[in-house]
C-alpha cells in the first residue's frame, strides 16, 4: 500500500475540511454527525506551544475563530512559509494583534478560513490545525470531528 508524506496528508485533510465547510455553509448537513449538546466551554480548542503561543479558538460555520486574548508566538521559524509571515505582519499592522511586553496578543476575535491557517499564524510555523488545536481533555479537532477514526 503506497504511503503519502505528512505535508501531503495534511493538505488533503485540509481540502476535505474545506469541502465539508462549504457544503455545510450551503445548508446541506450531509457530513454532520448528530452530537450531544455539550457545555459551551468544552467547544473551545487550545494551542499551547513550546515557543510561547497560547491560542484559544472555536469552530464556526465560516471557519475558525481565534479569540481575543490569545497569544501568538513571538517570531516565526526559519522554515515558515511566506504567507504565514505576511499574514502575521498584516494582523500587527491592522492592530488585530498588538505587542504587549514582547508578547503578541490578539486584541479582538479574528476569523481565519481554516483551523490550519489559524494554527500556522498563532504558532509562527506551518501547522496542521486539525492536529494542533485541542480540547482541554487533549482531544484534537480531527478526533472531535470524527471520533470513530484514528
Explain what the structure shows:
With 150 residues, the protein is α+β, with helices and mostly antiparallel strands. The chain has one domain (46-150). 33% of the residues lie in helices and 17% in strands. It is built from 5 helices and 7 strands. The chain has helices at residues 6-25, 82-93, 115-123, 129-132, 141-145; strands at residues 45-48, 54-59, 64-66, 71-72, 97-100, 103-106, 110-112. It has a 4-stranded antiparallel beta sheet with strand order 1-2-3-7, with helices on one face. It has a 3-stranded antiparallel beta sheet with strand order 4-6-5. The radius of gyration is 16 Å and the shape is globular. Residues 34-39 have low confidence and may be disordered. Residues 88-141 form the DUF4357 domain. This is DUF4357 domain-containing protein. Pfam families: DUF4357 (PF14267). InterPro entries: DUF4357. It comes from Halanaerobium polyolivorans.
In summary, what is this structure?
Pfam families: DUF4357. The protein has 150 residues and is α+β, with helices and mostly antiparallel strands.
